[in-house]
Amino acid sequence: MANKGKVAVITGGSSGIGKSAALGFAAAGYEVAICGRRADALQAVAAETRGYWGECDVTDPTAVAHFFTGVKERYGRVDVVFNNAGRFAPATSFGDLDVLTWQEMINTNLNGAFYVAREAFRAMRDQSPQGGRIINNGSISAYVPRPGAASYTTSKHGITGLTKAISLDGRAFNIACGQIDIGNAATDMTSHMNSGSLQANGTIMPEPTFDVAHVVEALLYMAGLPLSANVQFMTVMATTMPYIARG
What we know:
alpha/beta, seven-stranded parallel β-sheet
């Protein structure tokens, strides 16, 4: 396989998009390393990928550094990182948003993404041959918010700034960085959309979803490019989701 020997690191790899990505990268010939907070689920995925796993809370920079040390000890390098770990919060009007919820969302979705990307950047900068690719998981909400989702929206807007900054600073070290923005991929986390999601006009409306396999195809395309080329931003979404008409 063309990707034999290449190492892909996937955070939040025990379920949802992360799990699908781990299985997809392994099937494409990559050595796969995953992390997450649930050891039993990670072990189950790693049994299928025959790869490395580590229990790791991305909000803890020391734990993230330890995980990457394990990856480098196992494989010797890092070629692709899918910076995927994240969380949602219940829909809450802005004036009622709890400070703790805000802090938890920013700490996981933005700070955690920074800790992971920083370790990935360091590994790619210092290895030989130098370079690699970081793919950040943004969101449709990196562009247009859902109602009652200020903390999630803000964290994902921050991911866009992080992506651009890494792209610029990475040029000197042959490190490419792009962002995939996903709208309503069908996973356990989006199953509630079948019964209805809050819309901007206050109504509850079921929203269409699409097969998560298409997200994996997009990731493999982004990852498979030579480092001289980059997908800076890619949106993959259910064709008829209300994103284009939000507001």
